[in-house]
Amino acid sequence: MVRLRRNIYNIYDIISNKGLSSFQICSGSAVEGLDMIGSDVDIMYLFNDIVVCTSERDAENVAKITHVTTLIMDTDNTNPCYALLRVPKNVPFPGNMQWFLVHEGQDDFFSSQLLKLECLNRISRPGYLFKIHGPCLTTEDDSLDLACCLRCKCWPSQARSWMLRSRNNWPSQKLISKVVNFGVLFVPIGCKGSIYEHIEWRMSFSVAEKLLIYSFSHTQMLCYGLMKLLLKDVIDKRESLKGLLCSYFLKTLLFWLYEESGKDIWIPENMLSCFRACICRLLYCTQYSILVHYFIPQNNFFEDRYKDDDRIQMIGLLQEAYKLGLQCFCVSGTFTGDFHIIYNPTHDSMTIHRMLRPLIYYLATHFEKNENCFVMLNKINRFDGIKLASKLIMFLLAKSNNLKVQQNTTPHYYNNKLRYHQFKQQQGRLLISSHSGFSEVGWLFLASFFYRHKRYDIVLKLISHILSRALKADASFAYITRIPADMDQTQLKYKYDVLPAMCILRLLVDTIMVFEGDSSLIPEELDIEVTNNVPFQVDIIILTHFLRFLSNYHLGEFMSCMGSLGSLEANAQTWYRHNIVGKRQITTSFLCLGVAHEMMGHLDKAHECFSTCVSQGIWNLTKAELRLSKL
Hints:
The chain has 25 helices and 14 strands. The chain has helices at about 1-15, 55-65, 110-125, 160-165, 175-180, 205-215, 220-235, 245-260, 270-290, 310-325, 340, 350-370, 375-380, 385-405, 415-435, 440-450, 455-470, 480, 495, 500-510, 540-555, 560-580, 585-600, 605-615, 625-630; strands spanning about 25, 30, 40-55, 70-75, 80-85, 100-105, 105-110, 130-135, 135-140, 145-150, 185, 200-205, 510-515, 535-540. Strands 3-4-5-12-11-10 form a 6-stranded mixed barrel, surrounded by 4 helices. The model is unreliable at about 15-35 and about 470-500 (pLDDT under 50).
C-alpha cells in the first residue's frame, strides 16, 4: 500500500511536466501521438509494482522472482475486451492494500472503481481539480486525461486470433512479434451495464497501437491526420452528430483498411484516392452499424451506436465529404481562412505561379539560414516517386547554395591562401546549383561568378555551353517560356491553363535571374542596382547576351561586342514592341542595353534606353533615373 500510494503521489508531479507529448506511458516508455489544435493531453500511468498474470502458477513464479504484487486475469464471465483481476489464492496479498479488494463469491478482486477514487482523492488539489471520466481522471477544463493502468506481459487469449489471421503485407511478422511480446494494459473501467462493472478492467492495446502507428508510411499517416480533422472540423461541427464518433474509432477503421489493402496503394501520388477510401470505409461502417475491435473482433463498437435520424445525417455528411475530397476542409478551423484559395480547382496556372514563387523563395532562404534543414530534405527526397516534389527539392537545394554565395559576408582576405580557399568553396556551391536540374540558371550564376573574378575566357565558354544546351538566342523563345509575375491574366492564358505541373515549376524558376540585395555575384556594372538590400531581376536571355558583351569588351574583342550588343538589342526591342513579357523584365532589359551602349560610347542610345526604363513607372525598380542624370 505504501508503494502504491507513493506512485499515486508521483502522478501530480508527472502531469505538471510541460514537456509531455499528447500520449505517454509514464514510469516507462513515452508514446508520441498526433497533436491538433484544441487536442487534450493523454497520460497513462503504469503501476510497475503490480503485475497481471494469466494463471495461478504464473502468479506464484512472478511474485517469487520479482517480489511484486500479482493478480490473475479472469475473462470467463466478462464481455469481450474486459477482465476481472483476481487475487491469487497461494500468493500473500499485502494487508495494507486489502481495502482495494471486493469479495465476490469465493474470490477477491482488485476493484477498478476503488483505485480511481483513491487516485482522485490523492491528486486533486486547489486550483488543479479532477473528475472521473470513463477510465480517466480528467481536469475540469478537459485539457488533460490521466489513466492509471496495470500491465500483463502475456498476450490475452481473447486476442489470439489477431496473431494468426492472414493479412496483406501489413503489419509485418516482426512487428506482430513485437506487439505480442509487450502484452496488454488494463485500465480501470468496466463494461457498462455489467453486474461486475465496478470491479472490471478494460484491456488497453495502447502500446500495440502506438507501434502500429509508428510503422505507417507517410501517406498512411497523412490519411490518419486528415480523418481526425474530418472528425474535429467537419463531423463534430454539426451539433446533432457531435460525440457519436471518436478518434479511436477512426484509428481502428484505418488499421483494418491498411491491413486489408496492398502496400503499393498507399503512396503519395494516390493521396486523394486514399483519403476518399478512408471516408468510403467509414460510410460503409455507418450504413451497416459494424466496426469491430481491431484486436478482439467480438467487440462491435457500432452496435446500437446510432439512432435512425443520426445515421441518416451521418451518411449524408460522409457522402458529401467523399464527393468534395480535400475541399471538405474549406470550413476547417485548423486551416487558415485562405484554404479555399489554395484548393480552388478553377485557378489558372498564372495564379498558381504567383502563389508558388514567394513560397519556394522563402523556403530556400530558410534552408540557407539553417543547416539542419538538409536533414529534412534528405528524408523528403525518399519520396522521389513524385517527380514534381523531387524537382522542387533540388531547386531549394540549388537556391540555398546560391544564396550562401550571394549573401557572403566574409571580409576581404589579404592572405592568398585564404582567398583561394574562399574562391573554391563558393565555386563548389555554384556547381551544385548548376547540376540541380535547373541548370541554365545555375550555369549562368556560375558564369557571373567567374566574371566577378575577371576570368572572362571561362565566362565565354560557359555562355557558349548554355546557349548550346537550352537557350535560343532569339526572342521567339520568349513566346513559350515565360509567365511574368506582373503580366495581365488575360495574356497568354489560352496556353498555360493546360500546362502540366512540371512545366509550371520549370517556367517558374528557369526564366528569371534574381540577384539578391548586395549580391556578390552581380556584374560590377550593375552593382548600384542591388544597394540598400534591393534585389535585381533580369531575364536569363538578356543576362546571357549582356555577360557575353561584357567579357568580350574586357578582352578587347570589339567585333564580338557589337554582335552581342545586336542580340541584346533585338531581344529587348522585340519584347517591348510585342508586349511579350512583363514590364519589369522590359525595364531590366533596357537597363542592361543602356549600360552596354554607354560603355561603347553610344550616349544617345543609352539615354533612350534609360528613358524607356523610367517610362515604365511603378515597374521601374532600377537606378535608371540616376544613370540618366550622370550621362
